[in-house]
């Protein structure tokens, strides 16, 4: 004899499928947000805005005290203590550079950089987008003391630039996003090389042995077929420590680890290659954790009238001009010459107006530009001016790109409607 359900039990049973469906929709929504380009750009903007407001409020002392606070740990007789700023810029940002390394590795294996002919245009555009802003910067500064900042306007922020492109919306050719991503990845690769060659102190070559031990550990685990990422944390930490002790910037260890990440799956054992799986797992943490935290720690510049030194008043417009004007000029000039000489051709459905949009978006330096500024200028006054210049330039480039992109969408929509009317 079956038991009769009470009205309360029946209602509960009826609610379970609805709750499961809501839970599935919520998980899908959160997953889309976690991998959304537009959401990444918005998070960076919010973090930078909070830092600016905080650093210029009555609580500005607490902002600076927070990032200068010592954080460390002790193991027996050994202790390691550094400022919160160090942990963000030198430790956590290593994970960001790990993602950069894996993106480069993936593109070299099966992406836009795997086919030389396909990669040639964004490579040349990226080179122009590095050289022209650097030359404009050097032409505008009045003193040799500001020359170390020449590389600040050469970098492109991938997340911010692609996020702004996503805000423009649909209607743009898909090949434009691929072109912009490839250009930004090459930009990051060039920035990494610049950091390694020009912003590393006198190298302690003996400490390369420690870095070599870390690399040996990584290769050893790969030879044993170890695919779980957590096993690589220890040799990765040894590599990071060795790179730091040599005098090079420790985040370069992240790039090296990213470039060493396997791109092939083990048959029957993996649903995705490690370079895909690890990057996908780390992406939300980097996008919504590390990068906003970096912006919060580094975007808090002083805006008071007395906040800029005499040299800073020259530095700020040089960075703004180099990023906002130099980037699109360099991207457009080298691309036009390459196409004109038939070295390469524009991507499918991409017009020169789209290329100008890509150049404007490349002027959004933000994360990488601020990072290079922290290496270029130890002087607080010059660092403050350079950060302010990066923020103003990135914001200006984003606004110009949005206006231009929306204008292109409007014109394309009008043209499409006119074609439909003629056809009818």
Automatic annotation (TrEMBL):
Gene3D superfamilies assigned to the protein according to its UniProt record, in alphabetical order: Na+/H+ antiporter like domain (1.20.1530.10)
TM helices/strands, residue ranges: 33-55, 84-102, 123-144, 150-168, 175-199, 205-222, 252-269, 281-303, 315-343, 355-377, 389-411
Keyword Signal: no
Topology in membrane: Multi-pass membrane protein
Domain of life where this protein originates: Bacteria
Primary site of residence: membrane
Annotated compartments: Cell inner membrane; Cell membrane
InterPro entries: Na/H_antiporter_dom_sf (IPR023171), NhaA (IPR004670)
Catalytic activity line of the entry: Na(+)(in) + 2 H(+)(out) = Na(+)(out) + 2 H(+)(in)
Keywords carried by this UniProt record: Antiport, Cell membrane, Ion transport, Membrane, Sodium, Sodium transport, Transmembrane, Transmembrane helix, Transport
GO cellular component: plasma membrane
GO biological process: regulation of pH
Alphabetical list of Pfam families matching this protein: Na_H_antiport_1 (PF06965)
Molecular functions per Gene Ontology: sodium:proton antiporter activity
Its job: Na(+)/H(+) antiporter that extrudes sodium in exchange for external protons.
Similarity comment: family membership: Belongs to the NhaA Na(+)/H(+) (TC 2.A.33) antiporter family.
Name of the featured protein: Na(+)/H(+) antiporter NhaA
